[in-house]
Design goal:
The complex is a heterodimer of chains A (113) and B (107). By secondary structure, chain A is an all-beta fold. In chain A, strands 2, 4, 5, 6, 9, 10 and 11 form a 7-stranded mixed beta sheet that branches. In chain A, strands 1-3-8-7 form a 4-stranded antiparallel beta sheet, with no helix packed on it. Chain A is globular and about 40 Å long. The N and C termini of chain A lie far apart (37 Å). Chain B is mostly beta strands and 107 residues long. Helices cover 0% and strands 62% of the residues of chain B. Chain B is globular, with a radius of gyration of 13 Å. The chains are: A mainly beta (113), B mainly beta (107). Chains A and B meet through strand 4, strand 5, strand 9 and strand 10 of A and strand 4, strand 5, strand 9 and strand 10 of B.
């Protein structure tokens, strides 16, 4: 079956712009979570959505937001981009019970110039 | 202090050696996830375990809930095992990650 699909794979944006990233989960997975990975901070949890509702949120400013659609696809948006937002953004999907594990996408590498 | 600590941060070994990567956590968890990340960024889930031991091929993961400690072992290591290995604590509020162990297996 198809894995977790993230688009686009690479993105270059200018400071102050906004960006939208997309994540399509594995069929049947209703939970989608987002993560930011930087060389300095490693992997950090952004937020998690389940059945179109935000279930958890990490410690990131309000410029980072997300949503989930009825087909479980999710988008995350970053407004007013800063240089420090340059990172690999990963999403993962899982069944409702996280104990069954997560499947990660290949990520979107965002560069802010 | 990070809630999830991994050691070592970097590990270089010769092909064929037995590898151990350690993960300690200071928070209550429902499970622990071991992940593998190759250059280029893609993350592969290796194990999810909440007790005992799991084995897949040359990889073995163990967890001791009382001691809040997990280990990932690689037997008969091979250069293709070179990657970053990350442990992640599964909690009600999401995943908390260790900083990762950068493993290089030299032929």
């Amino acid at each position: 079956k198809a894995g977790v699909t993230q688009t686009p794979r690479y993105l270059i944006k200018t400071r102050g712009q906004q960006v939208t990233l997309s994540c399509s989960p594995i069929s049947g997975h209703r939970s989608v979570s987002w993560y930011q990975q930087t060389p300095g901070q490693g992997l950090q949890f952004l937020f998690e959505y389940f059945s179109e509702t935000q279930r958890n949120k990490g410690n990131f400013p309000g410029r980072f937001s997300g949503r989930q659609f009825s087909n479980s696809r999710s988008e995350m948006n970053v407004s007013t981009l800063e240089l420090g937002d340059s990172a690999l953004y990963l999403c993962a999907s899982s069944l409702a019970d996280r104990a069954y594990g997560y499947t990660f996408g290949s990520g979107t590498r965002l560069t802010v110039v | 202090k990070n809630e999830v600590e991994q050691s070592p941060q970097n590990l270089t070994a010769q092909e064929g050696e037995f590898i151990t990567i350690n993960c300690s956590y200071s928070v209550g968890i429902s499970a622990l996830h071991w992940l593998q990340q190759h250059p280029g960024g893609g993350i592969v889930s290796l194990f999810m375990l909440s007790s005992g031991k799991k084995k897949h091929g040359r990889l073995i993961a163990t967890i001791n809930i009382q001691e809040k400690h997990s280990s990932l072992h690689i037997t008969a290591s091979h250069p293709r095992d070179s990657a970053v290995y990350i442990c992640a604590a599964v909690r009600a509020d999401g995943l908390t990650f260790g900083k990762g162990t950068h493993l290089i297996i030299q032929p």
